[in-house]
Amino acid sequence: MFGTYRRLSTPNFWRLQSLDIYSKIHLIPADLLDMASLLEALVISKPDEVYNLAAQSFVSTAFEQPIGNAEITGLAVTKILESIRHVNPKIKFYQASSSEMYGNSQKNIQNENTPFSPASPYAAAKLYAHEITNTYKEAYGIFATSGILFNHESPLRGIEFVTRKITNSVAQIKLGLKKELRLGNLESKRDWGYAPEYMEAIHKMMQLKKPETFVIATGEPHSVKEFVKLSFELIGENWKKFVKVDKKFLRPLDVNYLCGDYKKAKDSLGWKPKITFEKLVKIMIDEDVKRWKMFLEGQIFPWDAPLYPDGKNNKVKKKVGKN
Predict the structure, then answer these.
(1) How confident is residue 309, by pLDDT bands cut at 50, 70 and 90?
(2) Exposure of 306 by Cβ count < 10 A (0-12 exposed, 13-18 middle, 19+ buried)?
(3) pTM above threshold 0.85
(4) Which of 37, 57, 100, 287 is catalytic?
């Protein structure tokens, strides 16, 4: 199995290490802004299937870096498809599209036929990538398919995303390492599912005889406030004692409601979500509590939280040093 990575001064392979698959993947350096490196990656790997899961996916950052987001999340997909067309047009291609493309849709539930109305530079770039994938499918006969994935979470979610920010902070509060959690829009509703299940759906999409677009979702919307409330309930606390709304975390333009209809995926792929919202939150809370306990015991393991110092982590390290 092959994977690409962008060269950084500080390597970031903690997820692969956490899954214990780091040694099983042949890693090839590549850059989405450099088409030559994408061509080289295809020549080296000789793939049957290419999965593009890369993007500048933190929506708030997209407002701060809209041009970079357009190039990385949007235009880069054209470079990948062009590389496939030149190296081997028989390669199957998967594009990770996003529910954010729907924006503030007028529909209570979104499916494959719901009109798009992007409300962020990230969503606009994703929509370009989605449409250019369809263009290459129709123009060149490439097996190019898109999955419109609604929010999918796991303990491997980056700590900058609201779900993981919540569970990581709640774990710290449980262990007395933090006193408050600051968030933006608590009323925003999303359709949250379990990431490993969504990856199974993606693989099923790539095994079809003809490429199609599928919505992958749970069909259940839940607010950020619900996620927060349940997280604190799992540690026996009242969320109102610890949570503060901070305007600096509000987006210039927010999407208030997203909920997906996965009927087509159920009928054509035999796929449906199994992990409930409540179970998902518990999985993430339990894992972050476990990590912080291991950290306090001085254990070394792959993890992202210590890479995001907020002033409080330094105090934790001093506490560890005294043990």
Answers:
(1) low
(2) exposed
(3) yes
(4) 100
**CB-side neighbour CA atoms (13 Å) of 244:** 7
For 82, residues 6+ apart whose C-beta sits below 8 A from its C-beta are 35
Measured distance CA(218)–CA(259) in Å, rounded: 8
The single-letter code of the amino acid at 3 is: G
Q: Is 140 a catalytic residue?
A: no
Residue 289 predicted with pLDDT over 80? yes
CATH code of the domain made up of 2-322:
3.40.50.720
- Known catalytic residue at 200: no
Distance in angstroms (rounded) separating the CA atoms of residues 128 and 279 = 34
Alpha carbons within 13 A on the beta-carbon side of 313: 11
Residue indicated by tokens 């987006």? 251
Evaluate whether 197 touches 272 at the Cβ level (below 8 Å): no
User: Has 98 been annotated as catalytic?
Assistant: yes
DSSP label of 197: H
Q: Which one from 102, 122, 136, 194 is the annotated catalytic residue?
A: 122
Please write the tens of the pLDDT for every residue from 248-286: 888 777 889 999 999 999 999 999 999 999 999 999 999
What is the 3-class SS of 248-303, one letter each residue? HHCCCCCCCECCECCHHHHHHHCCCCCCCHHHHHHHHHHHHHHHHHHHHCCCCCCC
Rounded to whole angstroms, the Cα distance separating 128 from 133 reads 8
Q: What does the block give as tokens for 128?
A: 């370009």
User: Catalytic residue among 97, 98, 105, 146, which?
Assistant: 98
